[in-house]
Design a protein that fits this description.
With 724 residues, this protein is of the alpha+beta class. Helix content is 48%, strand content 13%. The chain has 25 helices and 13 strands. Strand 7 and strand 8 form a beta hairpin. The longest helix is centred in the middle third of the chain and has 41 residues.
Length: 724
């Protein structure tokens, strides 16, 4: 068990724990001070508006508004939900969420690597990673707070069990054998809350994570889990007293705003059993002498691990890369934390609330009059304020002690102003809703008018999705692919990926190995402009295909039918084309030849004879003879299995005789035709004899071609090849 080293410089001249702890504390406190001053209030307001609550510090929380209307119009939440739905349509229309391609299509090894990695990635996104929740949650974060932050890592966990060893006779030998069992071996993509992430405020806006001299992530963790890691030797060990000193104030205003105005920060809850309490573990990445070092601390008080190179823990990272990606959906130059759509709508959301609440107050005053009562009069004030229909209010002098005031009713201008604010809101948000149509009757609700209204809104929505895909989705998936190349060892998963990629049929590979995953590949997210409108998406695809077919018909012969059909059905809401076309994309295999059939042999000999006749015919009669031969071949191939074969042949011969006589075929040709008739009659008699013999013996049956199937060789979990 390891214990903390209190020295500043070790015997080799390296920094000690106190120095590393001091650097981590300085990075955290300075970045937190800037975050609290510049970012926190904006994020709190965004979280409150997303939760349909007035922002902290709003006038509606003052005592003067205690009895006023305090409603909140959920325009912000409706806009973000609509964009979330658009992202689900754009990213999850087809089964293949991402496309992995080789940088060199002429390199067979790279093409194989790209095919297998593509199937591996899609398998992991479907089976191991909750990709739908992660993607929608990431887009929600980007729209609410302006940025989305995620941490990519490979989760590997195993346990050891000791078993007694036995000899050949099954008798225990007294020795113990340790067996390891894998509990988890998969990639992880974890979203990081903005309040739990710290970088330098002076970072470059195009790559804030990579250019910051430090990165600090605050990881909430139960004290019991921290003690388990210490007991297992993964972290430096401390007693319960020192661990408790690291548990400082855990309350965070952003978490409280996210949970709702009447909810407490769940992390700040304390228990009588301290193991249930939450403490923040800091993952610190600090650049020292041009190298990234990583270590963990308990808050800013205790060192939990020894500093080591970042690439020792994350072997898949490229030079200068960190295991974090920070993306956005709106580009703002020279701004590390750009504004999200939620922040852009702050003013209009507050205006909408103000107009609606004032109108509600006016309506309430019109329907419930304001009363003026004499100060010294004896009046039943409770009866007045209750204002119950049919009630009686006692007064001394009904003429002088009390009177009521009737304010004018709310005018239509209030509703018109509300409509204008809603239109401005939808225009800035880039959304098209039924409310937009209802507020703008100038378009007469025609199809063309609706298309005009929705065109710009769809463009803005697709722009946000494209920015999000470029700044977050693709960088995250690229890191995931590199993790697959560096850490994937599950033979069963690789066998599944090889089978889906048809490695055996396409490349002749029956087993996928680690070496096959090391090719240079490119990762792209399947999303483009027009992805949020299924009809426009299909129209653009068809228009493009028609244009290519018109310019270069030969190019269309290489069309991947599986991808084209999958894209069209995906736009219509079907995740895969395999449901409708189960054999789509499969390579055609040469059919297995059936055993020779005597009837086919007769037809073949007839065809050969007719071919000789056609060769001896005059040039003027070649077209007629060739056409007759083609007709005979079709008749012979289609009628040899039924009893009308003989009649058909005779009729054909009669037709040929008439055709030859009409064309005045030479005498030599007529003799050859007579010989052919004789040969044909002999073969016909032989065939009839064989049929009668077959019917009597019931032993001769037409051999059928057995259906065969070919399954690609896979690799079982124990390393044995699957047998056909």
């Amino acid at each position: 068990m390891l214990f903390m080293d209190d020295t500043n410089i070790d015997t080799e001249g390296n920094l000690g724990h106190d120095k590393w702890l001091s650097m981590a504390k300085d990075a955290y406190e300075s970045s937190t001070e800037w975050f609290d001053t510049s970012v926190r209030r904006t994020v709190e307001k965004a979280m409150a508006h997303f939760s349909n609550h007035h922002a902290p510090g709003s006038k509606y929380y003052a005592d003067s508004y205690k009895y006023r209307s305090k409603g909140f119009r959920p325009k912000t939440r409706a806009t973000i939900r609509r964009n979330e739905a658009a992202s689900a349509v754009a990213f999850f229309s087809t089964q293949d969420m991402v496309a992995v391609t080789a940088e060199s299509q002429s390199n067979k090894e790279q093409v194989l690597s790209a095919a297998v990695l593509g199937e591996l990635l899609n398998y992991r996104l479907t089976d191991s990673i909750p990709w739908f929740q992660t993607m929608i949650g990431a887009y929600q974060n980007a729209m609410n707070t302006g940025v989305v932050i995620s941490h990519q890592s490979w989760e590997f966990e195993e346990e050891s069990q000791d078993f007694p060893m036995v000899d050949e006779l099954g008798q225990p030998t007294g020795a113990m054998q340790t067996m390891r069992r894998t509990l988890s071996d998969k990639p992880r993509i974890d979203l990081v809350a903005i309040e739990n992430f710290r970088i330098s405020p002076a970072s470059d806006w195009t790559n804030p994570v990579g250019t910051s001299p430090y990165v600090v992530e605050l990881i909430p963790m139960f004290i019991g889990v921290v003690k388990e890691k210490m007991a297992a030797g993964k972290w430096l060990s401390y007693d319960s007293g020192k661990i408790q000193t690291a548990v400082t104030e855990q309350y965070d205003s952003i978490r409280a705003a996210r949970d709702g105005k009447k909810r407490l920060d769940g992390v700040d809850v304390t228990h009588a059993t301290t193991d249930f309490d939450t403490v923040f573990v800091h993952r610190n990445i600090i650049r020292k002498d041009g190298k990234d070092m990583i270590f963990y601390t308990l808050g800013t008080h205790l060192m939990l691990t020894e500093p080591k190179l970042l690439t020792e823990e994350y072997a898949h990272l490229k030079r200068g890369e960190r295991p974090y990606v920070m993306g956005t959906c709106i580009i703002e130059t020279h701004k590390m934390y750009p504004a999200g759509p939620n922040e852009l709508l702050f003013g209009l959301q507050e205006n909408a609330n103000e107009i609606a609440n004032q109108r509600q107050d006016n309506v309430a005053l019109v329907m419930n009059k304001r009363y003026f009562a004499k100060r010294t009069a004896t009046i039943d004030f409770k009866s007045l304020t209750r204002n119950v229909p049919g009630s009686v209010t006692l007064v001394d002098d009904i003429n002088s002690d009390i009177r009521w005031d009737s304010p004018p009713d709310v005018t239509s201008s209030s509703y018109q102003e509300q409509d204008r604010v809603s239109l401005d809101f939808d225009e800035l948000a880039g959304t098209f809703s039924p409310g937009t149509v209802q507020s703008n009757r100038a378009m007469n609700e025609t199809v063309g008018g609706m298309n005009m209204l929705s065109a710009d809104a769809n463009t803005l929505t697709e722009y946000q999705l494209r920015v999000f895909a470029e700044t977050w989705a693709e960088p995250v998936l690229k890191q995931t692919v590199r993790m697959e190349q560096a850490y994937e060892t599950d033979e069963l998963v690789m066998a599944i990926a090889g089978d889906r990629a048809k490695a055996l049929q396409r490349f002749g590979v029956d087993m996928v190995t680690d070496e096959m995953l090391q090719g240079t590949v490119t990762v792209n997210v399947n999303i483009g402009f027009g992805a949020t409108n299924p009809q426009k998406r299909i129209e653009k695809l068809v228009m493009g295909m028609q244009a290519i077919a018109g310019l270069s018909p030969a190019t269309m012969q290489g069309l991947d039918a599986k991808e084209a059909v999958g894209e069209i059905l995906g736009a219509l809401g079907y995740k895969s084309a395999e449901r409708f076309f189960p054999k789509l994309g499969e390579e055609q295999q040469a059919p297995q030849q059936a055993p020779p059939d005597p009837r086919i042999e007769v037809a073949r000999m007839n065809n050969e004879a007719r071919t000789q006749i056609a060769k001896g015919a005059a040039d003027s009669n070649e077209r007629v003879v060739i056409e007759n031969n083609r007709h005979r071949e079709q008749v012979a191939a289609s009628t040899f299995a039924n009893e009308e074969f003989i009649v058909g042949v005779n009729n054909e011969n009669a037709d040929q005789d008439r055709a030859l006589r009409q064309e005045e075929i030479t005498g030599k040709l007529a003799n050859e035709v007579d010989k052919l008739k004789a040969q044909l009659a002999i073969k016909t008699m032989e065939l009839q004899t064989q049929r009668e013999l077959a019917l009597r013996n019931e032993a001769t049956a037409v051999p059928q071609v057995a259906a065969t199937s070919f399954e690609p060789y896979g690799r079982a979990p124990n390393g044995q090849a699957f047998q056909q």
